[in-house]
Here is the input.
Amino acid sequence: MNVDFEERVDFARLRAYRLDRAKRAMEDAGLGALLVFDNNNIRYLTSIAIGEWTRDKLCRYALYTRTGELVLWDFGSAAVHHRLYCPWLKPENSIASYTTMRGAAPPASGLTAKAVAEIKDRLNDAGVAGEPIGVDFAEVPTFFELQKQGLDIRDGQQVMLDAREIKSRDEITLLATAAAMVDGTYTDIAAALRPGIRENEIVALANKRLYDMGSDDVESINAVSGERCNPHPHNFSDRMIRPGEQAFFDIMHSYNGYRTCYYRCFVVGRATQSQRDAYTKAREWIDAAIEMIKPGVSTDQVARAWPTAQEIGLADEKTAFGLLFGHGLGLALHERPIISRLTSLDAPMEIKEGMVFALETYCPATDGRSAARIEEEVVVGPTGVDILTKFPAQELYVTNPY
Here is the structure.
């Protein structure tokens, strides 16, 4: 969705911004290098991705040194492809990886030791082998081998989250585009949501629409209706939706890697007073949070604006986690800040200009089966927020009324 006659996303500028953020975070943490296995961190550093298939394989890893060397080990022939089509990465720094495919390759093959030896050689070449190395996550044998070969390993995930918490103009444009794609998808869902349709059919409709519009990964779609609304199961089923039932959906997908987490709630045909009341409360709670958010506000202040777990009928904040909730959005679904009574009251963090995050509220209805679920994605500006999620949500949306 780029053209030559308007400036929208400047990908060279985006790459430079992300590397600068990562380098400053690495230096602030006293690290000589970052070694990342998380696909989102790999993309943040290298701007290279080869798809959802690799997300759980741990078959790719990237190294970024304090001295500015950037190396990517990718799956087999993908490394050859990158040498041809990714000129921002030195050809000699695009290398086929050693991967055990999550342990499927026999340990006696020695692949983990070979991988770490190559990494160590690159650290030596960059002059940082004697310095601490931040690692985000890896297979347990990899951690053991890194230590066996004498590397000082630190928590690199926190460093990468430091880097990623403030979004550039290009990142915000990509996040807004991803949200716009969901706006359109909800328009199609509202038209299709009538008695007799099943939750999985809505999921299929949304997947097709998003991929038609250019999504690069539909990570997950929750579709929850009727008695399944309370308690919230965080999934979808083959349940058939009936007249007068509440239904809510969460669409999680990405455009150029940048993700959405975007709930909307509907009633099919007609709404009861109980359903409307629950929705009104959920809307009031999310609006109260939106009104509070600006630079300098701490996450515990926002969390205190929401009801306790007991007030929504759950035993404790651990059980209610994710229902009255805020979380950062970027290349991952959950970045900084996290806003929750479970975490924010004990470990508050400051909200800063340039953060992008989603706010989610949930309110069970007094009928014992329905529930309201709303989510808005916001960009923190100098004095407040800009809302990225545009599909109507101020009032409970009744589809195909009769």
The chain has two domains: 11-164, 169-399. The first strand starts at residue 33 and ends at 36. The domain at 169-399 is CATH 3.90.230.10 (Creatine Amidinohydrolase).
